[in-house]
Structure formats: C-alpha cells, structure tokens
Amino acid sequence: MLAKTLNLELISQTRLHPSQPPPQSCTQPLSTIDSTVLRFTPAGAIWIYDAPTQIPYSPSNILTSLRKALSYYPQWCGQLCWTPFNPSLGHANRCQRVQLTWGSPDDPGVEVVVTHSSSTISEILPDAAERSKGPWEPASFPSHELFPATNLAFVDASTCEGLPGMIIQLTTFECGALAIAVKMAHVLADAQTLNTFMKDWANLHRDPLFTPSPMFSPSTLSYRASGNIDAPSPDPTLLATANSVSRTRYDYYAPTPFAPSWAQSAMTPPPELANSTLAAPGIPPPWELWDQSAPAKKVVLHFTAAEILAIHAASTPNGEKISQHAALVSHIWLSLLHARATSESSAMASETEAKKERSGLAHLTLTLSLRPRVTPPLPTNFLGSPIVHAAASIPFPEPSPGPGRPSSSGLSLPDTATALTKALATFDEERVAALLHEAAFDDWSTRYWNSVLGTRNVIVTSWVRAGVWDVDFGGGRCRYVEPLMPEVDGLVVVMEAGLRREGGKEGTGHWAEHGVDVLVSARAEVVDELVGGGMVGRFR
C-alpha cells in the first residue's frame, strides 16, 4: 500500500532575491494576452529525482544557484498589480491590465520552502517503467503536499499586494531523493516559460559559467497585433478577421441562471467601467454542464511509440495530412467522449431543456503558443504566457455499442482528427495578428473565456518538446514530472514519457520515440469507464 501522506517536516521558509539585484527599479505592463489568463490555474510542476550515486543533494547549494538564476530572471521576484486605469494612455492602461514592478528592495521575492520527508521515494512513487505498464492513478501519490501553501499574487483575481509571483518547495526524502515543486502566476508563465526557467536554473547549478538568455519583452508580443492597438476604438475589419478563427468564446459576465454562486458574485463589471458603454452580453459559459460538486480524479495513460504510429495510421486511412500529435489528441478526445456518453446516458434523460440544447456538440480546446504564429516569430525563450485556445467541435456521441466501435452518430477517428486539424489551421499569421488586436480592445482582460470545463468540454495542453525531462540538476535521474493540474472535469496534458535511455536528450529524436504519457482529469466515473471500457487502449 502506497503512503497516504509524506509526513513533511518544515526545515525553512524564506523569500529569495537575485544574487545580483537589478541596478534600478523597473515597471513593465504585461502583454495583452498575458492579462487574459489572470483567472487560469497557476502554471507549475513537480520534478522528482532519484538519490544521487555520489554527492548527495544540498538544498543550500540548490538555493544558491536559484538566487543566481533569479539574477537573469529578476522579474520573477517583482510585484504584480493592475496598471493605472487611464485608457487615453493606450492599450496597456485599459481595464484590468496587469503590470510587473521589480528591482526594488520592497519586491516580494520568490517564496521558498524547504521540507524533509521521512519516506523513501520508492515507497510512494513507482518508477517510469512500472507506471508505463498500464493506467496509473496519481491519487496514490500525494503530490499536493509538495507545493507550498503560500498564496500567489492574483490567486483570487484581485489580491496582489505583497504576494509573490513564484513559489518553490524543495523536499528531500530519507533515501536521498529530491522533489522540486514550482508554481507561478499564469500571467507570468506558460509551460514553455516555466520549463525555460527550470532548465536555466538547472544548467546554472551544474555549470556556474552558464549564461541564460531569457527574453522578457511583453510589449513585443502586444505590438505583433494588426492595426493600431492604442487607437480609441478597434478596427471592425480586424475584429471580423479575429472572429473567423475556430474557437469558443464565452462572456463570463453574460447573465445566466446556471452560474454557480461564486461566479454570480463576481459578475459585476469593474467599477472603473461604471460610466462606460460596454459590449453587449455574449454567450455565457455553459455552467449547467459542469457539476463542480461531482468527484473527479486523474489517471495517467501511457502510449508506446508503436501505439502512436497505429493511432496515426488509423487517423489517416487515405493519407490525410494529420500530425501524430493531432491523431493522439483526437484519440484521447474521442475515447473520453465515449466514456462520458456511456457513464452519463441515464442522467441525460433528466436534463433541463437548456442543457439539452447544448448537448448536441462537444468541444475540444487546445492550448496554442503564439510564439511561432506571429510575424516575425518569437523565440522559444520568450517569456510570459502567450497562449490562446483553438476549438474543434464534433457531435457528442451516443453510448458505444462495444469497445472500440463507432457510436450511433457515426463519429470516427479520421473525422475527429480532421476536425481538429482544420481548427488548428485557422490560427494563421493574419488571424493571430487580428486576435491580438481584438484582445487589446476587450472591455476588461478577463471578460471573455475561450475554454471551459464540463461534460461537453475538454481542455488539452501539450508539454511536448518543452524539455521537461531535460531539467538536470546533476544528481540522480529524473524519476517523475507532474504538471500542476487540479482534479476537475475535463483537463488533459500530453507530454513525453520518462523512459529515455540514460544520457538521451528530449530534443534529439522524435517526440514520441520513448512513449507518451497523457494525464487526464475527469469525473471519477468517467475515468473508470475510460480505463475499463477498452476504447482508449484499443491500439495496444
């Protein structure tokens, strides 16, 4: 029986600052896109390393290298807050835009907690080879204990003063293993930024002469927009172009009786806009399709390279131009939809008319980085959270007549993969530039949501090629990486599996050559059906 708790002992808790502070204080508005993710779950992950064979891990030395890394990332020690509201100054001073101030002695710094567990890592966490043998439920591993309890800035979408934008916890285990957990306000970092920082920190720990070269320039992204984003009003033609991408777009403030109490209490426009003419209410989020009281859980599904090839072949029977990544995501999506249809078919009969109206389509929203999609492109070391969501929509299936068989709606893997591929293709350079123009003129930054959870929705984030397994602190082998992911109904993370040969680097071959791990969070009964129904594993 695996441990239910890590029995952590608190060793220290402090706020760290760069070993070489900036020469002066700076204030920089974040990009228009950064501000839109204010309400997102924080960006974060845990890296767990086996015990070194020689020199044991030294938390003191690791924190010394962290302070050096922060000298290249001084922004992470700074204070997040709202920009002063004054639209006449341009896009950065419209309502609820976020800025960052750093380089002051009063900076919040990075919260760092050091703990020790009396457990050994093998007692609580199977290795990658063992986890790859079948579906594995992370609930058996209490990873939540490895994250600090400190609140991040804007954790409630409003409070920021004195709160850090980054928090870190180091945990040593009795066997000599080490866990490093990092959590950041999402306005500061997406998965790419998080992994860029972690690799730079690890490289500095191994080689003090290493010189990171992160690019923190939020306005560079904002001004990749088409048109004049500082004009008094948006360009209608560009708004129409932006609206031609394949997406869902929900108005968080649109009136609806189905909103939960916490959302209803927040559905008042900011006071700064009390005398402003606002855009007409749009489509409200489908709150009625998300039962937040229903138990949810996570499972990790492992796919071998051979399975990925088989899934791709099944997705492209006529040689369609569909990537292996799109094929895998489509297979997961279709399998999850069938699991939902099977587990929820009896409940569907008692749904309200409003719920029935929305049940005809299922939506997958896939997180996209804008770095390669703007003109000119931005490098992978560009910091921030430059992400949007593409949405593909397909008919919600009836319960499957058998494992691996199509539903009565006739939905197939090729159809699903084609729908996803076509949705992604709409995010070309012209339309992405128009999206940036649109975001600059939103009444306030968090009004519109392009992704939601619930029985007809799934949000997919890919950490493929982010380099998660290349975060090497020079000790033991990386045993496990877990993205920060709440247990809710409809989240999926795709990432390379940790089965690379000793010395192999993540970017040196095909992304799926050592297998792929897919972390799925959904309602508990749906996860059980997904694992036990047979459809998701039919290419083994």
From TrEMBL:
<dbReference type="Pfam" id="PF02458">
    <property type="entry name" value="Transferase"/>
</dbReference>
<dbReference type="InterPro" id="IPR050317">
    <property type="entry name" value="Plant_Fungal_Acyltransferase"/>
</dbReference>
<protein>
    <recommendedName>
        <fullName>Transferase family protein</fullName>
    </recommendedName>
</protein>
<keyword id="KW-0808">Transferase</keyword>
<feature type="region of interest" description="Disordered">
    <location>
        <begin position="394"/>
        <end position="413"/>
    </location>
</feature>
<dbReference type="InterPro" id="IPR023213">
    <property type="entry name" value="CAT-like_dom_sf"/>
</dbReference>
<dbReference type="GO" id="GO:0016747">
    <property type="term" value="F:acyltransferase activity, transferring groups other than amino-acyl groups"/>
</dbReference>
<dbReference type="GO" id="GO:0044550">
    <property type="term" value="P:secondary metabolite biosynthetic process"/>
</dbReference>
